[in-house]
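Before we proceed, please read the two lines closing this message. Report back on whether the structure tokens fit the sequence:
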Amino acid sequence: MIQEVLTAVIAGGAVIAVYAGAAARVVKQYERGVVFRFGRLVGEVRPPGFTMIVPVVDRLHKVNMQIVTMPVPAQEGITRDNVTVRVDAVVYFKVVDAAEALVRVEDYKFAVSQMAQTSLRSIIGKSDLDDLLSNREKLNQGLELMLDSPAIGWGVQIDRVEIKDVSLPETMKRSMARQAEADRERRARVINADAELQASKKLAEAARQMESTPSALQLRLLQTVMAVSAEKNSTLVLPIPVELLRFLERGAPLTPPASTSASTSTPHLPPAQEPIPGLPTPAYLAGRADAAEAVEAVEDLTGASVEPSAPTDGES
């Protein structure tokens, strides 16, 4: 009798152990459990930890609640300014309602992938090439809004959408390279012209300063000579500016101009200067001038002398 009771207890314990093993489930921290009983949703979503279900009757489905990183295959399209490009992106999303993700859509990952591809093509057709290259933040926000509207009904939330790469044709790359090179050359010329303008203003200011103080020009010339001589050149070119000659001319003493008429003026000799041997003395020159004046006076009184001409053949 006792042996039969022990056998029944052991059998009952084995059945309970098998039942408990079949009914026990463990839900991880990043998962949520959804129970279907005879194909119908039962109760609330099971939280993480240990949980029990009815064996054979219930089915527990675990849904991952982590953020999923899904790459979007490259999509080829034509932009609004008629440029053919290939654009790929990446979508970050997560499940916020495990029951809706299982009931509303068959495969929420595949649905999000297809929706991302169609939205990316739509964004390419509505945007210009410059927007795809430089204004990606605005395009990312537009893609996120386009994906989040249908995904919220599937129990999925779109966290972020990023455009990864934009592939351009080779002809367009060469055209953009030429455009960038021309723009850089234009900026270089503008900067060079601005530098020339500033330098000319400074040179004009320096010229006005040197005009008021001519000695500054000579000092600057000496500095230039020192700079050139420091290079140990065999040939030294020394320019003499016109302003330096004018400065020397202003500093020279003034002398009266010499007369061109030798008959009415005498050479000017300083009082202390001795007569040079071989040259006419001032007294001799003065005497010749007086004699010339006397001859002119006699010709004025007597008139010019007229010599008789020879008789012609008709005269007797």
In short: The CA atoms of residues 263 and 293 lie 9 Å apart. The first helix runs from residue 2 to 23. The mean pLDDT is 78.
